[in-house]
Amino acid sequence: IYGIESGEGLPEKYTARSLDEMKRLVVERSAELDKITTMTATQKIFQLTDYVESLGFSFSEIAEELMISNVGSNSKSTS
């Protein structure tokens, strides 16, 4: 069922596998964009947003998941 509640036409619930794959793809794409020295941070965010949404995901949800993953990784590495 796609985006019935949000009206965005994007999945409301992701499987763990699809979410993990999407996070991996975003990190890879972000690294590619970081190599482009003429692109501003704002332009990179717009590029990532378009990329994520073209694959049927919500950028804000993926970004939130990445931040949660990062916080969890940081707390494990400092324990």
Tell me the Rg in angstroms. 14 Å
How would you sum up the global shape? globular
As residue ranges, the low-confidence spans are none
Count of helical regions = 3
Secondary-structure element order, N to C: HHH
Number of strands: 0
Largest sheet: none
What is the residue-mean pLDDT, rounded to a whole number? 79
Distance from N terminus to C terminus (CA atoms, Å) equals 40 Å
Strand content: under 5%
Q: Could you characterize what this model shows?
A:
The longest helix has 19 residues, at 16-34. Helices cover 66% and strands 0% of the residues. It has 79 residues and is mainly alpha-helical.
Question: Could you outline the blueprint of secondary structure elements for this entry?
Answer:
Blueprint: H1 16-34, H2 41-54, H3 59-77
